[in-house]
Amino acid sequence: MKFFSKTLSILISLFIGVKSQEFFGCYEYDVANMEFLTFASHLDPNLATPALCSKACDSMGLPFSAITSSMFCFCRLTAPTASVKVSDDTCYSSGMCTADTNQYCGHSKYMLVYTGDTTVEMTPNTDPSSLNLFDSLTYTYNGSTPAKNLIIKSNGLISGYQPLYGTATIFFTQTGITTLEATSSGGLMKDSNSQRIVIPSPTVKDDLSNYTLDCPLSGLNDEIFRCDLRFNKGIGTVLNIDFNDATTQSANLPDTELYAFGIPVPQKISTTLLNKSTGSSVNLLYNTFFKTDGILRAVEIYAETAGSIDLNIYAHSTCSSQYSSLKSPQSSCGDLKTSSTFGCTSSFMKGLERCDTDDAGQKNFYNIPSTSFTQIKTEPITLTAGYNLIQPFGGATGVKQGWILGLVQNTGRVSIDASGKAPVSDYTDASPLLNSTCNGAFHIRAFVSKPTIFSSSNLYTLVKNYTLSASITSPINIAAKTASFAIYERIQELSVITDNGQCQVDVECTFTATTLKGSGITYEWRLPSINTTTTTAILKHTFTSNGVFDIILFAYNPVSNETYFFTIKVLIVVSKPKLFASSLFSTDSSSIVGKNAEFLFTLKTGLGYTCTINWGDLSTEKFDDSLSPKNNTIFVHLYAREANYNVSIYCENSISNDFSSIIHSAQHEITNLRLTRWFSFRNIQFSVEFALDFGTSPEFQMTYNGQTDSVTYNSVSRTGAGSPRIGTSSG
To answer: What is the pTM of this model?
Structure first.
């Protein structure tokens, strides 16, 4: 199969007028100089006559007119540049020229072009089943007579004027096309006699590249888990995913969007270019503002002459004077390598490859010093004369919205088409020129693709490790990626079990963390002066000092966390509480009935305790150390009657208790000790007698002439006497 094997059969018949100019003779139609650029579209074809056509052209300020045999009127500013084929007299007398489709017979009002036929056959040099984006295809064409205007049009590219036979090349800058259009005419392309045919196009593919699979490292078993698949280019892709949980997914992915920023570039230009050179300074072009973030795939440039340039990517220097002329500039100097929004006051029109209005485009950046811009990337480019399609920076460099494509002279002077008239006569730029500067007329176009991002989701209910597999198949290649991740259960209702919120100094204390739910938990315990991390829920810790301490437990897994605050009281054990008689530290304890008895309280260890003294007479007394320590404190108690009392003390805190007791004797006080008989006669036996008012179990010591005398005492009568004696002398 030959994709372009097609024959064009074209009928050409034109009347061309030159109005009142006295041009006589037969004139050759000068296609190279584009005879008639403007047509009077407001003229009704049904009413068209040479006279009306002339009048219409006059109203447009174009003195020369021509009308086709199909009554379509064209106008022109200057007279045709034609060569005389026969003498004026012959032409005038005969009213016609020889039967040559390239000759015109003129008189005072209009010229006649004879009807003739021409055929063109096009055959591709190769027969590919498909092509990649930005590939080219060369074809051979042959014409039986010069077709003059032969245009092979695809993706907005025009091969331009062709001679009678030769070869031409088409570059494919768009995917998804199925046909090409070929047009041939002996005159203007909008002439009703122009012939168009549809040619089958080879399939244009774009291979898959820069495929990435981005999944989080962890997820929850109660939430949707999402992975993003991204590729910078690729069309016709099919995704297959194995989620590793017995579920799969298949999907046709959207094609990568390709944007073309700039004026479409013809592949051949026959007119003389306006000689604008890249010069020695930066030439920044209105049409090459990048209006979206993406990947710079290719650039097409038409160069009148061959030479070398530097192709640069720029960001505006935000402090430069030129930057202030842009639409909505940043208020201050900042990060240049970020996206900026330019121009589109309402919307970006993809079909026209420009904004509907763009104030930034009014700025002429031609010959502005390069110091006004910050260079992001640069690459030397060698241009050939004519059409150039290049893929700079490997065709895969990222660009930001608002960045600019610029050209800088490297060696020699490279003329870039800046005339705005380079296309064939009926070809109109997609982006109209906003001013007459070369800035708007450069024929350069950049192709930027926006990466395709596809999100895939799945609910994993089991807590475990997974490995997801994803493969993308395109018409050209296959790419596969895997991603490993873990699914966790969310931590809920964190708390800590303690021994009633208390611990004991110098004794190991246990804390146990609990949760209602959660998996793969790490516990971070924040204790006084120390932080410790465990992967188990139990922490054992020994406090070396007493007090009340705030503790924080932070429990987390890769996808959830909770914090629990609690207070722990660290106590000292109660041991050896004792009562002593006053401050004598004696276990022999006694007191006088009716008077306060003093008891000294001592405690070997203890904190946060409460003590109860049982005085042994059916009365008790309680105290604690909440306000101040009570160790070595004197307590008093009054006994109302004489007796021996079992006095006990019991002390406790929340972690311990202890007990001790003593026997306390409450006795009457010895009062009014007196002698009731202390004299006698000589040589008569007598005893010294005494008496007491009160006194419990008194003990006596009596001396007689320096010698101890025994004493008897009656506790009932509270009387007593010494040993009987006989006094031998008075005194």
So the answer is: 0.57
- How many domains, the chain? 6
| 450-481 pLDDT per residue, tens | 888 899 999 999 999 999 999 999 888 888 99
Q: Which residue has the tokens 């609910």?
A: 459
Structural domain harbouring 220: 212-256+453-488
The fraction of the chain above a pLDDT of 90, given in percent, is: 24
Sign of CA dihedral 526, 527, 528, 532: negative
Continuous H helices in 50-172 = 50-59, 88-94
Distance CA 710, CA 703 (A): 8
Q: What is the pLDDT of residues 315-333, one digit of tens each?
A: 765 544 444 334 333 444 4
For 730: left if phi > 0, alpha if psi spans -120 to 50, otherwise beta; the answer is beta
Percent helix, strand, coil in the chain, to 5, is: 5, 50, 45
Q: How many CB atoms lie within 10 A of CB 619?
A: 11
CB 452 within 8 A of CB 234: yes
Q: Are 584 and 513 in the same domain?
A: no
Find where tokens 């909008």 sit: 190
25 and 6, same structural domain? yes
Rounded Cα gap, residues 649 and 62, in angstroms:
129
Identify whether the C-beta of residue 194 lies closer than 8 Å to the C-beta of residue 184.
Answer: yes
What distance in Å separates the CA atoms of residue 725 and residue 683, rounded to the nearest whole number? 9
Report the C-alpha gap between 426 and 189 in whole angstroms: 6
Say how many residues make up the chain: 731
Asked if 385 contacts 250 with a C-beta cutoff of 8 angstroms, the reply is: no
Per DSSP, the three-state class of 94 is helix
Identity of the residue numbered 391? Q
Same domain, 181 and 137: yes
Element (H, E) at 199: strand 195-200
What is residue 614's three-state secondary structure?
A: strand
CA distance 324 to 73: 48
SS3 106: strand
Cα 714–716–722 angle (5° rounding)?
15
Residue 126 DSSP code: -
The predicted pLDDT at position 676 comes to 74
Do residues 655 and 571 touch, judged by C-beta distance below 8 A?
Answer: yes
Place of tokens 């205007």: 149
Distance CA 474, CA 727 (A): 148
Question: How many CB atoms lie under 10 A from the CB of residue 122?
Answer: 25
Of 620, 650, 667, the residue at which a domain comes to its end is 667
Do 320 and 437 lie in a common domain? yes
Task: Give the DSSP letter string of 280-337.
Answer: TSEEEEEEEE--S-EEEEEEEEEESS-EEEEEEEEEE-TTSTTGGGSSS--SS---SS
The Cα 661–Cα 427 span in angstroms is 120
> Pick the residue with more confidence: 201 or 214?
214
Same-domain check for residues 263 and 252: no
Q: How far is CA 522 from the centre of its chain?
A: 27
Phi/psi at 338 (5° precision):
-125, 165
Decide which of 517, 538, 571 is a domain's last residue.
Answer: 571
